[in-house]
Every structure is written in structure tokens, then in C-alpha cells.
């Protein structure tokens, strides 16, 4: 995990100590189930419950001799259990009964953390969209001025995108929060399926319906695809905020602390560093998602090619995704909006943003489309090349711009606001 991009709650979930605590819990739950089946003595289960969770340092020490993490964990765990009871530990189980079941629990909790932050991002986007619903600005296509819109409308689009991400994360959370306690090659040959049911129910997990010894890795791929998609949606937001902070635009600005320094050489710089960071992290998330897809195909009932990849991509992807989403919440919450500059930019191109209204007016008079389009385009070209105001360049068309204001483009705009208000109810 990358400390710079890892928040404490996610770091704790993927810590070695938490992993060994979960492995200990799975072992105890499995033994409890076998006790109920009359297989493991009650006294042995009590001894297991009293035993301490092995320290990561002790497991690492044993692993130098055994070269197998699960066996080293079991050896460290059994050091604190009487020998007569230790023989019942891990009965009928295989390593990945322990590893994958605990991992399913961890991934479910990690997905919950990320979902919670995504919901907060959705909420702040809705709030700020409603706040700036009537803050008019120029809409841009291909980076070029198009027609008037509002900043609230822009944020509304992002809010709905994040809402879709919340839905994807919920589905991925359900897919990944599963376990299996089915023994070697997943046939339950040496363990009763009741044990699996008991363990997974206690941990709030579903059960892999046809285990091959391991939980199917398409589940992990689904989760990391959902994380990467959220990352891409945040990247879209951050990219727009970067563009709107350019010197030539300056319609929004990130909040900066008094300690901010934008350049080692140029004290005047006010760089969009938070937005840039969010875009960069999205690239990482896409890479993790690709690696997760590579882990889906395993040899026969299982191999170990996926393990080294998962040790990196699962904690890293979830920690980076969580950090990115939290940073996006802060960015939008504290974003400063220059409404006056937004309004001024509508007039920057001398009326050209109203060309579609002029075209519609001519078409409404029955002028053929090609003729009307070429006439308006010729006037627009004169404005763009000579600086003549569009209203003057239109002389001869019989159309004036006297009544044209940005609000003319927003006549039916509130239908989108009503949809946004419906979305806001989700967080009430």
C-alpha cells in the first residue's frame, strides 16, 4: 500500500494484524461448527478462543523456515494452544478456505468504505449543483464556445455519473463478499458443508456456489472494474476543474491553505494540483483493473499465479480509490466559483453563442435549412475574423439579437433540476 494515498481506515483493513485476526476468527468459527457436529471437543474450541492472535513478526519469523504463510500462521497460532487441542485446528480445511473467506470479509468492508465516500461525493455534487443551478456559463464542445448552460447543470451530470458508480459498487460488493470452506479442490470431501454455512453466516458472507478450492476471481475483477469506473468519473470531474482553472478561463479555483506554494521558482503560480492528482490516480486504478482481469483464469482447480498480483492490486486499488474519492469530496465542497467571470465569458465571442437561436428563427420563417445555415455561418465567420459583433454581421438576415439572453437557452432547463432533486432524496 502507498502511504501517501492511503487513509487510516483502509490501511487498518489490509494490515497484517487484521488479516491474522480474521484468519483466527475463521479457524475458531470452523471449529465451533465442527463442535456442533460432534467432531471437535468443546474444550479444544475453548482453548482456541483463548489463544492470542499471532503477531505478524512471529509469523514472518516462522515463514523463513517454512516458506508458506498459512502454515506459518497456523504454527504461530498453535504455540498458544495446548497440544491436545491444537490437533483440531484447521481440521478438514485447506489454505484458501482460510485465505479467501477472510479476504471476502475484508473486501466487503473495504467496498463499504468506498461506497460511503462515493455517496458523500454524490451528495455534495447534488448540493452544489442546486446551489449553482442558475449560475450561467458558456458551454464548450471540442474546447470551443458552444451555447450557454449553467454550472449547476454541469455538476448535475457528474452527480448522476457518481450515482451510477454507487450502484456498480453495491453490486460488486455483493459479488465479492463471499467465502468458501470446502477443502481441497472444493468437493467438501473432508469437511461438512455445514461448517462453511456457519462460518460465512457469522461473517456476513455469501457462499461460493461451486468452489474449485478458491473463490472465483471474476468477483475481484468486478470490484476493481467498479473502483476504476468511479475513478474515471472522478477524473472527468477533475479534468473539467483543471480546464476551468486555466489562466485564460479562471471560472473556478481550488481552495488552498495559507501554506500553499505552487512552484519552487515562480511564487505567483496557483496550480490545480488537487485536480491533477485525481486524474493521475485514475490512471493507476485502470491499471489495477486490468491486472484483476488477468487473475481470472487459473490452471485447473487453482494455481498460485494470482496471489502475488492480488497482494498488490487489492489493497492498493481500494486504498487509492478511497483516497481519490475523499479528495474529490473535499475539492467540490470547497471549490470557489467565479459567477461573474462565467457570465462574462458568454459575451466574449461577440454574440456567436446565439447562432443556433438565429438559425432556428430563420428556419421558423420557412427559409430552407441549407440557405439559412450558410447565411448564419457567413455572419459568424465575419465576426470571428474581423471582430464585428455578430448582431451587426447578421444585417440583411432580418434577425436581431436584441432579445437574446442566456436564459433563452434554459426554457426547459428545470426538467433536469427536478431529476436532480429526486436524486437528492437518496441521501436524506
From TrEMBL:
<comment type="pathway">
    <text>Purine metabolism; IMP biosynthesis via de novo pathway; 5-amino-1-(5-phospho-D-ribosyl)imidazole-4-carboxamide from 5-amino-1-(5-phospho-D-ribosyl)imidazole-4-carboxylate: step 2/2.</text>
</comment>
<comment type="pathway">
    <text>Purine metabolism; AMP biosynthesis via de novo pathway; AMP from IMP: step 2/2.</text>
</comment>
<dbReference type="Pfam" id="PF00206">
    <property type="entry name" value="Lyase_1"/>
</dbReference>
<dbReference type="InterPro" id="IPR004769">
    <property type="entry name" value="Pur_lyase"/>
</dbReference>
<feature type="domain" description="Adenylosuccinate lyase C-terminal">
    <location>
        <begin position="350"/>
        <end position="421"/>
    </location>
</feature>
<keyword id="KW-0658">Purine biosynthesis</keyword>
<dbReference type="InterPro" id="IPR000362">
    <property type="entry name" value="Fumarate_lyase_fam"/>
</dbReference>
<protein>
    <recommendedName>
        <fullName>Adenylosuccinate lyase</fullName>
        <ecNumber>4.3.2.2</ecNumber>
    </recommendedName>
</protein>
<dbReference type="InterPro" id="IPR022761">
    <property type="entry name" value="Fumarate_lyase_N"/>
</dbReference>
<dbReference type="GO" id="GO:0016829">
    <property type="term" value="F:lyase activity"/>
</dbReference>
<dbReference type="Pfam" id="PF10397">
    <property type="entry name" value="ADSL_C"/>
</dbReference>
<dbReference type="InterPro" id="IPR019468">
    <property type="entry name" value="AdenyloSucc_lyase_C"/>
</dbReference>
<dbReference type="InterPro" id="IPR024083">
    <property type="entry name" value="Fumarase/histidase_N"/>
</dbReference>
<comment type="similarity">
    <text>Belongs to the lyase 1 family. Adenylosuccinate lyase subfamily.</text>
</comment>
<dbReference type="InterPro" id="IPR020557">
    <property type="entry name" value="Fumarate_lyase_CS"/>
</dbReference>
<dbReference type="InterPro" id="IPR008948">
    <property type="entry name" value="L-Aspartase-like"/>
</dbReference>
<keyword id="KW-0456">Lyase</keyword>
